[in-house]
Automatic annotation (TrEMBL):
Protein name, per record: STE3-domain-containing protein
Annotated localization: Membrane
Primary site of residence: membrane
CDD domains for the chain: 7tmD_STE3
Superkingdom: Eukaryota
Record's keyword terms, sorted: G-protein coupled receptor, Membrane, Pheromone response, Receptor, Transducer, Transmembrane, Transmembrane helix
One GO CC term on file: plasma membrane
Transmembrane regions listed in the UniProt entry: 6-25, 37-56, 76-96, 117-138, 158-187, 208-232, 267-287
Keyword Membrane: yes
Record's bilayer topology term: Multi-pass membrane protein
Amino acid sequence: MYPAAIAVAVLAFISVALDLPPFLWHLRNRNVPACALIFWLVTVNFFKGLNATIWSNDDLESWSRGYGLCDLEIRFFVGKHFGIPAALVCCIRALAVVLDTKHTVVTTSKGARRKQYIAEIMFCFVMPILMNAVYYINQPERYYIFGITGCDWTIDQSWLAIVLIIVWPFIFCLIATYYSGLVLFRLYRYRRDFSRLLQHNSTTRSRFFRLFIFSLLIVLGFLPASIMAFIANVSEKHTAYSFDETHADFDQIVLVPSYGQVFWDKWVEIACGFLAFAFFGTGADALRMYSHWLGKTGIAKVLPTIEPRTRDQEQTSRIGSATWASLASVSGKAKNVFGRKDSHIGTELSSM
């Protein structure tokens, strides 16, 4: 077993365990983009840790061929290819729209919120699922198996693959970068009113900036990778698309030794898993959730300071910690908080 395989397995499984509580917290509060972002990271890192234990060396003759497992994994990997950049766009766009002063609404109806949730689910989950069907068009082999990192997907060398598969994560990362710059600009422009606005909308500066900084760091991690992948694929010699030629060896499984090395982009995904916990798993809301869980396990009898919250406290916390819901009502209250036209710092959140 390569040392790198041990490191990948241990770090990947640790990141999965750490990210599950933040994922459940966002799921409970219907923060679809943040929930989707953590979901894709958890799924990818879980498979990464599992693969490192199965294909931990370069003894190709003894390798499992991954029947069934790899067929499943590559579907998630293709989904992640689109899902993470799409979730980033939704996360950062939502924060940018919060600071929009030109499109304000007095209240956000249940119907509008429902449409917002549906749009976010379509963009963060349904679209990656649909792209798996599109991927079949450019899938030349069944899958690849690399040493240590295991199952992986591949595409043909046609120009159609660039249009259907390669270009979209690159475009999403560029859009997310644009919204990141827009958030920074609006934060600077409305820096004097920002704190007052958040105080009147059941949210905190900490929640806002944790989500923004986390999303920004992932953009900085995935943008170079998407640029390099896009340039590398465009620079290669491409052929006209032929369905028959692409699928001529469709049942082939390609085995690739690692020589003890792991591609750097695999480490980036593991690092993003730890960042997710650092930003979402150590805040006041997360600590209250941990305290609630520990209290229900009976540890409160041993440590009296750890007590489960009452129903009223739980409801109060949900109202105060539902980040997306509280941010969605910013626009209506902004008009009451600030009388000047240039101080309206709110709008309805929507992901599309």
